[in-house]
Design brief:
The complex is a heterodimer of chains A (about 110) and B (about 110). Chain A is an all-beta fold and about 110 residues long. Chain A is built from no helices and 11 strands. Chain B has one domain: Sandwich (Immunoglobulin-like). In chain B, the strands form 2 sheets. In chain B, strands 2, 4, 5, 9, 10 and 11 form a 6-stranded mixed β-sheet that branches. The chains are: A mainly beta (about 110), B mainly beta (about 110).
């Protein structure tokens, strides 16, 4: 099973809301990633978790807060977002950072109003 | 991080035609993947190919690691092949860097 699941598929939120995106994998992978993708652009790395510890934060604003409760789950907590944060948010996992194939979830399409 | 160049940026094909997509890397990579992003945004793994040649049905890929490039061949294209094709590479134990993609449109 090479499936990464993400919920919700779509999310519309106001600038004062707090919401969370969820990602799950059951492949025993120890690296998990959050990417942001704007229209007609490639995915941009936001965060990397390695063995449940945050190992890379690509200068992401603090209104995005990642969390890795266990080796299978990854959350992205959203607070006080801006309209320019509207994008497709993709979760991925791999055996370890930079090792083996990276598998992506279907994404959450976020609209900030 | 490494720079990844993809060509061509856009490609329009008649159904049944063949095509070659190219990916150049600024540095040697030990991890290289090709993805197809469908219209709904899902990134589908096509090949994990740090070196050598692989085939999967109508698709095949070749990576020449010493010359820092990879090619994706699509034969007998179908309308369902439409979408964006990304290559991505990593050096050492680092994260993947994505190219800017090739947008493929296959017309019936």
């Amino acid at each position: 099973d090479t499936e990464v699941t993400q919920t919700p598929k779509h999310l519309v939120m106001g600038m004062t809301n707090k919401k969370s995106l969820k990602c799950e994998q059951h492949m025993g992978h120890r690296a998990m990633y959050w990417y942001k993708q704007k229209a007609k652009k490639p995915p941009e790395l936001m965060f990397v978790y390695s063995y449940e510890k945050l190992s890379i934060n690509e200068s992401v604003p603090s209104r995005f807060s990642p969390e890795c409760p266990n080796s299978s789950l990854l959350n992205l907590h959203l607070h006080a977002l801006q309209p320019e944060d509207s994008a497709l948010y993709l979760c991925a996992s791999s055996r370890s950072v930079g090792v083996g194939e990276q598998y992506f979830g279907p994404g959450t399409r976020l609209t900030v109003t | 991080g490494i720079q990844v160049e993809q060509s061509p940026p856009d490609l329009i094909l008649q159904e049944g035609a063949n095509s070659t997509l190219r990916c150049n890397f600024s540095d040697s990579v030990n991890n290289l993947q090709w993805f197809h992003q469908n219209p709904w945004g899902q990134l589908i793994n096509l090949f994990y190919i740090p070196s050598g040649t692989k085939q999967n049905g109508r698709l095949s890929a070749t990576t020449v690691a010493t010359e820092r490039y990879s090619l994706l061949y699509i034969s007998s294209s179908q309308t369902t092949d439409s979408g964006v094709y990304f290559c991505a590479g990593a050096t050492g134990a680092n994260n993947l860097f994505f190219g800017t993609g090739t947008r493929l449109t296959v017309i019936p």
